[in-house]
Automatic annotation (TrEMBL):
Secretion signal span: 1-20
Location (main, coarse): membrane
Family matches, as Gene3D superfamilies: Outer membrane efflux proteins (OEP) (1.20.1600.10)
Protein name, UniProt field: Outer membrane protein TolC
GO MF: efflux transmembrane transporter activity; porin activity
Subcellular location(s) of the protein: Cell outer membrane
GO cellular component, as recorded: cell outer membrane; efflux pump complex
The keyword Signal is assigned to this record: yes
Domain of life per record: Bacteria
UniProt similarity note: Belongs to the outer membrane factor (OMF) (TC 1.B.17) family.
SUPFAM superfamilies registered for this protein in UniProt: Outer membrane efflux proteins (OEP) (SSF56954)
Length: 430
């Protein structure tokens, strides 16, 4: 039972150390919040929404009259018009024109309305992409957090096994000094301990790199002592949110983008068809023509006009073929939508089964760990009784270390799979 006391003592040691390092810890919720506030990807998504809103305002301006002003001035070194007394006492060598024209489109085949619908859709698309960016950042944050959690727990396992091997090494040194064992038994323990120390060194280096990457991602200063506060609870088997996979795609960002893509193709077809329909517009123009010279007065000219444009030749020429191409493109988009819908459902189903497998892996890993722990206790008792060799004891210790490592990996993988499933079903908590 000695190993149990060693593990319990080491657990309290780690707990005391964690309490002393509270300023160097972070929770999963705090990590998500920091990542959302810092992410440049999310910032760009918000800018994309602002750009789309500006585009919508620009499209809405097409409902207003189009107004333009024109000014022309002419000057010649010779007279345009010679003097004609008594009607024109002086020749005219300059002239000007100033006018304003306003045009209002009454009907353009629905192009203005369709353009506004497309602009409004771009806002919706950018909002979906912004949510997609948020979900991506949250998913990556969770993945990095649970990866660090695994490394953190693996470090505890290696430290506990190092303590255990140090105890065996001390015991072997005492036995060798008393002449009760061969030097070869002591060397076997040293070799096992050296392997563990090398593995621990590699893990520590990898953990520092992972912490640096994590800090960069969520936008906090690098802290080599950073601890993941939400540890892996290996005392119980975590449950899955639902009893069956949720194949409802309504909350899936990719599905929503597929829908918008199909709707966009339909609107583009309407826009193309509108190019070959009649257009009607009314306008008013007011201008003044005159000369700066007093010899010739100015004249005010108000004009009202109407324009009807009928693109007749496009109905059977190039326009007809372009409209046919647009119709075909719309059908292609419909087929792509169906394919994308099927692939998303397949992805959800695969993610669900991966999650189920991860939960089963936890059960298997826990069973292996319990058996390895019992095997170490029995082997230790047999060694103390002279029924097992030091090699048997070291093998049992290595098996327990591997079993605990596999259990930690199984738990970390489960939480990563859970985050992936929630993400693909649109249920990743913000």
């Amino acid at each position: 039972m000695e190993i149990r006391f060693i593990y319990i003592g080491f657990f309290f040691l780690l707990s005391a150390h964690a309490m002393a390092q509270q300023n160097h810890s972070i929770s999963l919720d705090e990590s998500k919040k920091a990542a959302l506030e810092y992410s440049r990807v999310i910032q760009n998504s918000e800018l994309g929404i602002q750009s789309a809103e500006a585009g919508k305002k620009g499209a809405a301006a097409n409902y207003l009259p189009s107004v333009s002003a024109t000014g022309i001035g002419l000057y010649n070194f010779k007279d345009f018009i010679s003097a004609m007394p008594p009607l024109l006492t002086e020749g005219v060598n300059n002239a000007y024109f100033a006018g304003v024209t306003a045009t209002e489109v009454l009907y353009a085949g629905g192009k203005i309305r369709t353009a506004n619908e497309l602009a409004a859709m771009q806002i919706e698309v950018n909002k979906i992409r912004a949510k997609q960016s948020r979900d991506s950042v949250l998913l990556q944050t969770e993945n990095k957090y649970w990866t660090l959690n695994k490394l953190q727990e693996q470090h505890k396992t290696l430290t506990a096994n190092e303590t255990y091997l140090n105890g065996i090494l001390k015991q072997q040194e005492d036995l060798l000094a008393s002449g009760l064992i061969a030097r070869n038994d002591l060397l076997k323990v040293k070799v096992q301990r050296s392997k563990l120390l090398l593995e621990k060194s590699k893990l520590n280096n990898g953990r520092k790199v992972a912490i640096l990457d994590f800090c960069f991602f969520i936008g906090i200063p690098f802290d080599s002592l950073l601890v993941m506060r939400d540890g892996l609870d290996t005392a119980r088997i975590p449950s899955i949110d639902a009893q069956a996979p949720d194949l409802d795609l309504s909350a899936n960002n990719d599905y929503q983008l597929l829908q918008k893509s199909l709707e966009s193709e339909q609107l583009q077809t309407k826009m193309t068809r509108a190019n070959y329909l009649p257009s009607v517009s009314l306008g008013f123009s007011a201008g003044r023509v005159g000369s700066i010279s007093n010899s010739l007065g100015s004249t005010f000219m108000p004009i009202a006009f109407g324009v009807v444009n009928v693109p007749i030749s496009d109905w059977w020429g190039t326009g007809k073929q372009k409209l046919r191409q647009r119709t075909i493109s719309e059908k292609i988009a419909g087929n792509r939508f169906k394919d994308g819908e099927d692939q998303l459902k397949v992805g959800i189903l695969k993610s669900w089964y991966d999650l189920e497998d991860a939960q089963k892996q936890i059960r298997f890993a826990k069973e292996n760990y319990v058996q390895a722990a019992e095997n170490l206790v029995v082997t230790r008792d047999n060694y103390s009784s002279g029924l097992s060799s030091i090699s048997d004891l070291l093998d049992a210790q290595a098996q327990l270390q591997q079993a605990e490592s596999e259990q930690i990996t199984a738990y970390g993988d489960f939480f990563n799979k859970m985050a992936s499933y929630r993400s693909i079903t649109g249920k990743l908590l913000h």
